[in-house]
Automatic annotation (TrEMBL):
<feature type="transmembrane region" description="Helical">
    <location>
        <begin position="60"/>
        <end position="78"/>
    </location>
</feature>
<feature type="transmembrane region" description="Helical">
    <location>
        <begin position="35"/>
        <end position="54"/>
    </location>
</feature>
<feature type="transmembrane region" description="Helical">
    <location>
        <begin position="361"/>
        <end position="380"/>
    </location>
</feature>
<feature type="transmembrane region" description="Helical">
    <location>
        <begin position="116"/>
        <end position="136"/>
    </location>
</feature>
<dbReference type="InterPro" id="IPR038770">
    <property type="entry name" value="Na+/solute_symporter_sf"/>
</dbReference>
<keyword id="KW-0812">Transmembrane</keyword>
<dbReference type="GO" id="GO:1902600">
    <property type="term" value="P:proton transmembrane transport"/>
</dbReference>
<feature type="transmembrane region" description="Helical">
    <location>
        <begin position="175"/>
        <end position="194"/>
    </location>
</feature>
<keyword id="KW-0813">Transport</keyword>
<keyword id="KW-1133">Transmembrane helix</keyword>
<feature type="transmembrane region" description="Helical">
    <location>
        <begin position="299"/>
        <end position="318"/>
    </location>
</feature>
<keyword id="KW-0050">Antiport</keyword>
<dbReference type="InterPro" id="IPR006153">
    <property type="entry name" value="Cation/H_exchanger_TM"/>
</dbReference>
<feature type="transmembrane region" description="Helical">
    <location>
        <begin position="330"/>
        <end position="349"/>
    </location>
</feature>
<dbReference type="Pfam" id="PF00999">
    <property type="entry name" value="Na_H_Exchanger"/>
</dbReference>
<comment type="similarity">
    <text>Belongs to the monovalent cation:proton antiporter 2 (CPA2) transporter (TC 2.A.37) family.</text>
</comment>
<protein>
    <submittedName>
        <fullName>Transporter, CPA2 family (TC 2.A.37)</fullName>
    </submittedName>
</protein>
Length: 400
């Protein structure tokens, strides 16, 4: 019965989603991304303030929303980036961050501040590319040279921690995690073969082409089916499905080919129009405000470590290819984290290895990065950005 959706709570969540969009529309100069308003609305609805409902009331829909966050992030990522300088530098920056995180968290574990060594260390290396995409696309920051570096650093910071979590922290053992990764690879091959079959099949190709729009929406329905099937892979914890959603997004962009912009617009409408806001409002409802209030210094500690460990290497790695202002923007984007932190906190709590106050502080620090860093990235871009093009020159225009 845990998966039953409360219609009353869902109505309140939908109301917060609408209000957040209206506020952003009425106050275009508001230096706060919409996701922050969704999180704040969730906190307001949650058990620690108005007690309208709990995150558990909409868990199924929130899981689908998290899947959409990663699917859309993967869909936006161009794998060819990793053959370019942007991809190579993003990989170098992430591995430097990983080394720093292991060292810093090792010290914290030795002093008794941290119990869950690996989840916290990986948490310091994550980047919330899916969370940042609406802001970056809306402000035209994904176009041009800077956009390539932002997408690469965000993609690495989202994919590699999830890969590590699936292998080392998966709830069903390392062998099952490796099998899951292999299944995702097989899925990519199968989708590639299906693409070839659809092209050569004649009749099926005609049906798919004719049913992409209007009432059939074949490609959209197939994508939603794929996403929900991936989420259903685990019944207790959806981490492997999250990894699958990200990689499926990468594969889908190649699979649909020339129709990629049209499908992206539809996925934006379904994802950002309903499921993604449900996930973020639900995350706000689940935030343990009482634990954060009891130990605020832990939140500030994790916040500072995210900026130093994840953002700091970007200032050095991109020194010869980006000017100082854009390096700071890249560092701030790199250090913005949230969805994976929620997953890591849940892993730590379920396994009993993470202290509740650390889980709350880690997620709270992620919320703080989402609150502050995207706004600073936009503010830094405003001064010289009058001459910058608003549309993303390097990719399809988004609905942001």
């Amino acid at each position: 019965m845990d998966d039953v959706v409360s219609i009353d709570t869902l109505a309140a969540v939908a109301a917060v989603s609408l209000v957040a969009a209206v506020v952003v529309g009425l106050l275009p100069r508001l230096p706060v991304p919409q996701v922050v308003l969704l999180l704040a609305g969730g906190m307001l609805l949650g058990p620690h303030v108005l007690d309208v409902g709990a995150a558990q009331d909409v868990r199924v829909l929130a899981d689908v929303g998290l899947g959409f966050v990663f699917l859309l992030a993967g869909y936006e990522l161009d794998p060819r980036l990793f053959r370019e300088d942007a991809g190579r530098r993003a990989l170098l920056a992430w591995f430097v961050s990983l080394g720093l995180a292991l060292g810093v968290v090792g010290v914290l574990a030795a002093t008794g501040v941290v119990r869950a060594f690996l989840p916290v260390a990986l948490g310091l290396t994550t980047t919330a590319l899916g969370t940042l995409l609406p802001v970056l696309r809306e402000k035209g920051l994904l176009g041009g040279r800077l956009g390539r570096y932002l997408l690469a650093t965000g993609g690495v910071g989202e994919l590699f921690p999830v890969l590590a979590i699936a292998v080392f922290l998966g709830s069903q053992g390392r062998l099952a995690a490796l099998a899951s990764l292999a299944a995702v690879a097989v899925l990519a091959v199968v989708l590639g073969l299906l693409r070839r079959g659809v092209r050569e099949g004649g009749r099926l190709a005609a049906v798919v082409a004719a049913g992409q729009d209007d009432t059939a929406q074949i490609t959209l329905r197939a994508t939603v089916l794929l996403l929900i099937a991936l989420i259903a892979v685990t019944d207790q914890f959806h981490l492997d499905a999250v990894l699958g959603a990200f990689l499926a997004g990468v594969v889908l962009r190649r699979w649909v080919g020339a129709a990629a912009p049209q499908l992206e617009a539809k996925l934006d409408a379904v994802g950002y129009g309903f499921f993604v806001p449900v996930f973020f409002v639900s995350s706000g409802m689940a935030l343990d405000l009482a634990s954060i209030a009891e130990a605020p210094l832990r939140l500030l500690l994790f916040f500072a470590l995210m900026l130093a460990v994840r953002g700091g290497p970007a200032l050095l790695v991109y020194r010869r290819v980006l000017p100082a202002r854009q390096r700071v923007q890249t560092a701030l984007v790199s250090a913005t984290a949230l969805p994976v932190l929620v997953a890591l906190a849940e892993i730590g709590l379920r396994s009993g290895t993470m202290l509740p106050e650390n889980a709350a502080a880690l997620v709270g620090a992620g919320v703080l990065t989402v609150l502050l860093f995207p706004a600073l990235v936009v503010a830094l871009d405003r001064r010289p950005a009058a001459a910058a093009p608003v549309p993303a020159a390097g990719g399809p225009a988004g609905t942001g």
